[in-house]
Write a structure and sequence with these properties.
This protein is α/β, with parallel strands linked by helices. It is built from seven helices and 16 strands. The chain has a single domain, classed as Ribonuclease Z/Hydroxyacylglutathione hydrolase-like (Metallo-beta-lactamase, Chain A). A seven-stranded mixed beta sheet has the order 1-2-5-6-7-8-9. It has a five-stranded mixed beta sheet with strand order 10-11-14-15-16, with helices on one face. It has a two-stranded antiparallel ribbon with strand order 3-4. InterPro entries: DUF4336, RibonucZ/Hydroxyglut_hydro.
């Protein structure tokens, strides 16, 4: 079910467990002036959501923003076969069975001139197989002054289950808008991350939509800056 956040931007959510923790997941839908829709980090689509999307416009772009948010990409494409799949180029090597129409790296710094984006360089996370890059693209919707992140920061608050709250506190992130301790330990190229953060801070955003955690509606830019000062261990 879609929920309107601001003019020409909606979200839809569904439950998700990550290593047994309830973290939820969220997709973002943006409508361009020509009526075309971009879906960022698609979730499992159902009849109700499909009907709502069809009422909003024409689903033209389905975007996998990093190397991990692709699970429902093919399902979404099957419902909207006329759409184009955009993803980071490295996803082709990781999941060659997924049909990708265009690499985000080939698209420049905006999509149709209405959705700005940048590659968040240097950022890694820990998985059982070791420290792995996210290759995440971050998006800025200027019309609603909204930043759209996927796995480069989280905001777990009192609305989440007790186990999730306890673990996020251990990882340094309960009620704090920032990456977790795992990403801090995994990321060695801090200078690249710093440069990416500085680019993000040039955007005039007032809200941040994250894939995991609550939407940040208050002092979003200030919280993002403070979260990455903690991550980098220096002032920005």
């Amino acid at each position: 079910m879609l929920r309107k956040i601001d003019k020409n931007i909606w979200i839809a959510e569904q439950p998700l467990k990550y290593f047994g923790l309830s973290v939820g997941t969220r997709m973002t839908v943006i409508r361009f002036n020509n009526g075309e829709l971009a879906v960022i980090s698609p979730i499992q689509v159902d009849d109700e959501t499909t009907e709502q999307l069809n009422q909003l416009g024409n689903v033209k772009y389905i975007i996998a923003p990093n190397l991990f948010h692709y699970l429902f990409l093919s399902n979404f494409k099957a419902v909207y076969p006329q759409s184009k799949v955009y993803a980071v180029s490295a996803l082709k090597a990781k999941r060659p069975e997924i049909s990708i129409d265009q690499a985000l790296e080939d698209n420049g710094e905006n999509l149709l001139g209405e959705l700005e984006c940048l590659l968040f360089e240097g950022f890694k996370t820990f998985l059982p197989s070791g420290a792995l890059p996210l290759n995440e693209y971050i998006f800025f919707h200027a019309e609603s002054k909204t930043l759209v992140l996927t796995d480069t920061a989280f905001y777990f608050d009192e609305t989440f289950p007790m186990t999730t709250k306890i673990v996020s506190q251990i990882m340094g992130g309960y009620k704090k808008f920032r990456p977790s301790l795992l990403e801090q330990l995994a990321t060695q190229e801090k200078e690249k991350v710093k440069q990416s953060v500085q680019k993000v801070l040039r955007w005039d955003f007032r809200r941040v939509i994250v894939a995991h955690g609550s939407i940040v509606e208050h002092d979003a830019k200030k919280q993002f800056k403070e979260g990455y000062e903690w991550f980098l261990g220096e002032s920005l």
